[in-house]
Design goal:
The structure holds three protein chains of three kinds. Chain A has helices spanning 43-51, 73-78, 96-107, 122-134, 150-163, 180-191, 206-212, 230-235, 237-250, and strands at 3-14, 17-23, 26-28, 32-36, 58-63, 66-67, 81-83, 168-172, 198-202, 215-220, 223-228. By secondary structure, chain A is an alpha/beta fold. In chain A, strand 10 and strand 11 form a beta hairpin. Chain A is globular. The relative contact order of chain A is 0.18. Chain B is mainly α. Chain B has helices at residues 2-29, 36-54, 58-79, 89-111, 137-159, 161-171, 173-178, 183-209, 215-218, 220-230, 236-255, 260-274, and strands spanning 127-130, 133-136. Chain B has a two-stranded antiparallel sheet. In chain B, helix 1 (2-29) packs across helix 10 (220-230) and helix 1 packs antiparallel against helix 11 (236-255). Chain B is globular. By secondary structure, chain C is mainly α. Chain C has a domain at 27-252. Chain C is built from 17 helices and no strands. Chain C has helices at 4-15, 21-36, 41-64, 72-87, 94-117, 121-141, 143-146, 171-192, 195-205, 207-212, 217-243, 253-266, 272-291, 296-310, 312-315, 320-329, 331-344. Classes of the chains: A alpha/beta, B mainly alpha, C mainly alpha. At the A-C interface, helix 2, helix 3, helix 4 and helix 5 of A face helix 1, helix 9, helix 10, helix 11 and helix 17 of C.
């Protein structure tokens, strides 16, 4: 079994606070792997470390066997690992068409092309159009992103990542803030990803996690707590204790 | 050698009093205020006019300079600055450059173009020897006044109720507001106080820095340096940065007069390459 | 096999770059002025290089989102480079010398970009301001080369392309500046509509996400900073060539600050802002500085303050014809206005 993504003893400290505590995570190629944990467990910090937004205090990150710990964000993207954000991070002045087009042309290495017009490569446009169609964005493709309804923005958030054709996709709460009725489109688009794409999903909503994941890792206080098949994790008394504890706090 | 150090410290401390208000307003309100020097100029001209035209004693004119600049600061904060706190930095830059230009041209119109000085009392003239070090009396005054102010500020920020509220507001405005802290009131008061300090610095500085209508433009870069190098998370940062800037500027102009101005720029470039977020920034930026 | 969607998408992407009739009218007017306004060529020349200078700032402010308070540094270097090349007869042909002056400024832009890109808006402002001050001080200190505070005198310009002399009425000077402006504008337009230009807007909007889709943010900013410096250097070179003079004033803070105003009056981020701003600014200066020559900066300042407080959209209302033109030229600007109108309702 080959590993798509692996961390070895990953640690991140902010001042005296340890946000990520000695995490050694193994994500197999083609996996549907979920990362869950109560609020403040350090899930988003871990994604930030994996994608290169943050530099770890110690430990290593391997992508398809290569050490990428010291690489900048954009190089990790070129190596096939792309992320989405829990809170939409989009380009307000660009349209969905331009946004997706940009992601596709950057992946193609056309980003420094300043002489050719954007949109003059037919092969790229075919791909752009198919992404827009898949994410139900074709009807709003010429609207400015900043004025799109939240649901559409959320779809675009995922679409941009897919347009970069990742081999490893990190999804940070893809359905966050999306009302029940509109979730279907986002979940369906994730389910429709090719089997060879490795997906690491961070999610709060247990329904989504258990309908999607083949393997689950539980993160508590920055460290890996329990790992296993969904059925086993669901039955694990320690996990129940953690989540029950949170629910009690929450109420 | 020690005399140069002494002069440098005096100069640095003066810069600190001039610029620390800017550092606090930047940290607190995320406001880029390029017109900070205009408040210093207001204080400077207050002292010059009071002392030279109305015969007010020099020592009495200093608190008055503080007061005048603080009142102008308060009025400007409520009338103008309050509108740009939440706007992008570009808008703040445009607004405050506009204010600088207006202040420069307006002062030129009212006070004339030439450089002015306040008539300082006899006591402050000349220098005396102290263990072989030449101590300028005026500079000694600056060090004493600014030193007391720096200690006082540190005390206010760390020990008083206002200080803890201010720090809470700097750390997280929303949480502070939730705790029932009047953030707007703190903004206004802090802005006025910072402007007042600049005014006092301007009044003290007429003797050393010179005072003419272009003052806010001439010293803009110095204030910016203090704030960028010193950071905005404490007043220790700007204090150390001011001293560094003051000493290196004085020493540079004394030892290599031809290259005087380049010494500080070189230091700044080195600092920025070495620590791009400033010397004393917090480990994690929000 | 192309679906209707692909066709629509292609159409949308390409429509950005299509020439609008008003653009053609704008340039036709500018060129017609060569023959129609022969008495105004001196001020038109100034407008032309100022427009180019403002265009270069638009790359930074409007596209990459970098605030610079020291753009005069590159303008000044270009001016001195062009003047020195002519004075010491290193490159006699003005067009070549101009290009060389641009390259010198570009080299400076490349080196300083590393400093400017680090840190926050405040650091950028401080560094850009500092760089301009250092250069001014250098030009002052190296008097044997630059003429110091007196400026660089005794510069004689050779004919353009060996044929067209710089005449004292500025006839050839204007035509020369306009052609240079036009050519560089075409390049700028191409850049703005390319994937590269799109990536700059993305970086300005959200650098975090830009990196997350594989855009090397720092590298792009270094490139655009260098290009902007090249443009500014050419603008400075045009000033030096048309006046046969360069002085310390080219580096002044006022010049950088005025330039921001020029760009802001015309509007940021659609390339024509700098050009329209330059026309308005020069015309305004022409009238106002006759009324109050000494306090001209006061009115500049008042205008800046008013624009920010009243809101840039509303104050430029008096330039409605220009803004309409602008909006029609750029479908994105048009949509922005429509969106703004919707927000107000």
């Amino acid at each position: 079994m080959t590993l798509a993504l692996e961390t070895i003893g990953l640690v991140k400290q902010f001042g005296g606070l340890t946000a990520t505590n000695d995490v050694s995570l193994k994500v197999e190629a083609g996996a549907r792997h979920a990362l869950i944990g109560p609020n403040g467990a350090g899930k988003t910090t871990l994604i930030n470390l994996l994608s290169g937004v943050l530099k770890p205090t110690s430990g290593r990150i391997l992508l398809e066997g290569d050490d990428i710990t010291g690489l900048p964000q954009h190089t990790r993207v070129h190596r096939g690992m792309v992320r989405t954000f829990q809170i939409n991070q989009l380009f307000g002045d660009l349209t969905p068409l331009e946004t997706v087009g940009l992601a596709v042309s950057e992946r193609n290495g056309d980003g420094m092309d300043w002489w050719r017009m954007a949109g003059s490569k037919p092969s790229l446009l075919e791909e752009i159009a198919s992404v827009l169609e898949r994410f139900k964005l074709a009807d709003v493709m010429n609207e400015r992103t900043a004025i799109l309804p939240y649901g559409k923005q959320r779809l675009l958030e995922i679409a941009v990542a897919i347009a970069a054709k990742p081999r490893v996709l990190l999804l940070d709460e893809p359905a966050a803030g999306v009302p029940e009725g509109e979730r279907h489109e986002i979940l369906a688009s994730i389910a429709a990803l090719p089997k060879d794409v490795t997906v690491l999903l961070i999610e709060h909503d247990m329904d989504i996690v258990f309908s999607f994941a083949e393997k689950i890792s539980v993160l508590v206080n920055g460290g890996l707590f329990v790992e296993g098949l969904p059925g086993d994790v669901a039955k694990d008394p320690r996990v129940k204790a953690v989540y029950l504890g949170e629910e009690v706090h929450g109420q | 050698m020690l005399t140069i150090l002494f002069d440098g410290v005096a100069y640095g401390m003066l810069l600190f009093v001039l610029a620390c208000g800017l550092s606090v307003t930047l940290g607190l309100m995320n406001l880029i205020n390029l017109a900070h020097g205009a408040f210093a100029m207001a204080g400077g001209y207050t002292t010059v006019v009071l002392v030279n035209s109305f015969g007010v004693p020099f020592f009495l004119s200093l608190p008055l300079a503080f007061l005048v600049a603080a009142v102008i600061g308060l009025v400007m904060e409520r009338a103008v600055y309050v509108h740009v706190y939440r706007k992008p930095h570009l808008e703040q830059v445009l607004l405050t450059i506009g204010l600088v230009f207006m202040a420069v041209a307006g002062t030129d119109y009212v006070m004339g173009t030439s450089q002015v000085f306040a008539n300082t009392p006899e006591v402050l003239h000349g220098q005396f020897q102290f263990f072989g070090v030449g101590i300028g009396r005026y500079r000694l005054l600056i060090i004493v006044v600014c030193g007391v102010l720096a200690i006082g500020l540190q005390y206010i920020l760390t020990r008083t109720r206002f200080g803890s509220r201010l720090r809470a507001a700097v750390d997280d405005q929303r949480v502070a507001q939730g705790l029932g802290i009047n953030v707007n009131g703190i903004f206004a008061l802090t802005f006025a106080f910072g402007s007042g300090l600049a005014g006092l610095g301007g009044a003290l500085g007429t003797e050393i820095l010179g005072l003419d209508p272009t003052f806010p433009l001439k010293y803009m870069i110095y204030f910016l340096i203090v704030v960028t190098v010193g950071g905005t998370s404490s007043i220790t940062g700007p204090f150390v940065a001011s001293l560094l800037l003051g000493i290196s500027d004085v020493a540079g102009k004394y030892y290599v007069p031809k290259l005087g101005a380049f010494v500080i720029y070189t230091i700044i470039i080195v600092v920025l390459i070495w620590r791009p977020q400033g010397l004393f920034s917090r480990a994690s930026a929000k | 096999m192309t679906s209707p969607l692909i066709r629509r998408a292609t159409e949308s992407m390409l429509s950005r770059a299509r020439w609008h009739p008003l653009e053609i009218i704008f340039w036709a007017g500018a060129f017609a002025a060569i023959w129609l306004l022969p008495t105004r060529h001196l001020i038109l020349t100034e407008i032309a290089w100022l427009a180019l200078f403002a265009l270069s700032l638009d790359f930074l402010v409007g596209y990459a989102g970098i605030i610079s308070l020291g753009h005069a540094a590159f303008f000044g270097v270009g001016a001195y480079a062009a003047a020195l090349l002519a004075k010491h007869e290193l490159i006699n042909e003005p067009v070549l010398a101009l290009f060389a002056a641009g390259l010198v400024a570009m080299a400076l832009g490349f080196v300083t970009s590393f400093l400017v890109l680090r840190g926050s808006d405040l650091t950028r402002i401080m560094v850009s301001l500092g760089v301009a001050l250092i250069l001014r001080e250098l030009a002052n200190q190296f008097g044997w080369l630059t003429g110091g505070a007196d400026g660089l005198q005794g510069v004689t310009m050779q004919p353009i392309l060996g044929t067209f002399r710089f005449d004292m009425f500025g006839h050839n000077g204007y035509a020369y500046c306009l052609v240079v402006l036009f050519v560089l504008f075409l390049v700028a337009r191409q850049i703005a509509n390319s994937p590269f230009g799109l990536s700059l807007v993305a970086i300005k909007n959200n650098p975090l996400r830009a990196a997350a889709i594989g855009i090397p943010v720092d590298r792009r900013l270094i490139v655009i900073y260098s290009i902007a410096a090249f443009y500014a250097g050419i603008a400075g070179g045009l000033l030096a060539q048309t006046t046969s003079f360069a002085s310390l004033d080219v580096f002044s803070f006022d010049r950088s600050a005025d330039l921001l105003l020029v760009l802001i009056i015309g509007g940021v981020g659609y390339l024509y802002g700098g050009l329209i701003g330059a026309i308005l600014f020069k015309v305004m200066q022409d009238y106002l500085s006759v009324l109050t020559p000494q306090y001209w900066p006061f009115w500049i300042g008042a205008l800046l303050v008013a624009m920010v407080l009243i809101g840039r959209d509303r104050i430029t209302g008096w330039t409605t014809p220009f803004r309409k033109l602008a909006a029609k030229l750029d479908w994105r600007a048009a949509r922005r206005d429509a969106a703004a109108a919707e927000d107000r309702r």
